[in-house]
Amino acid sequence: MTSVETISDRFVRQQDLVPDDKLxxxxxxxxxxxxxxxxxxxxxAAIGARSLQLIDFDRxxxxxxxxxxxxxxxxxxxxxxxxxxxxxxxxxxxxxxxLQDRYRAKTDxxxxxxxxxxxxxxxxxxxxxxxxxxxxxxxxxxxxxTIRVLVAGxxxxxxxxxxxxxxxxxxxxxxxxxxxxxxxxxIAAGLMIHQFVRWLRGQPLDCDTTVNLLAGEMVVAxx
Length: 223
Hints:
Layout: H1 3-10, H2 20-24, E1 27-31, H3 35-47, E2 51-56, H4 62-67, H5 79-90, E3 95-100, E4 112-115, H6 120-130, E5 136-143, E6 146-152, H7 155-160, H8 182-200, E7 208-212, E8 217-221
Parallel strand pairs: 1-2, 1-4, 2-3, 4-5
Antiparallel strand pairs: 5-6, 6-7, 7-8
């Protein structure tokens, strides 16, 4: 069996759900590979993304093994390097660009962006710089067991998204990952991937989804 046959074979159970031809054409940038970003990158690799750009300046610490799913052997490594290794373990043929840095306005990014950073200030700055350069944009946020996924993949989403970038003085104090769990991060990443796949299929998007796991509540806006 050739390597091409092997790669094609592993997608057989999702071939009616994920348009692999459209996915293969896209360069996807994940900004921030912490709790949500690492899960999103691995799920993207698993569904067949062919080109992934990872942007993060941080290193893996011991708490990241519990809350972000990094391996014990990853502690001390650059997060982008550890995620690159994990992606390559899934599929060594994926083109991965690991950028050890903060996102900067001059950074060349893909037409699809998964934004997984900690602060509103960072989200606002990145959106102002890169938002209109993308075709699909999804922002994953979480605090404790509450998740919010915001999508700008159509004009409705692009109009709504800036309204969620409230002033820093109105934000809840502390980093959004100060209270986090791996299961919340995984669900958040899955919701982001789901919206991305809907976009690939040309289906309506939910521009603003909030899930409160503790209360068992889900609120969806936009179609």
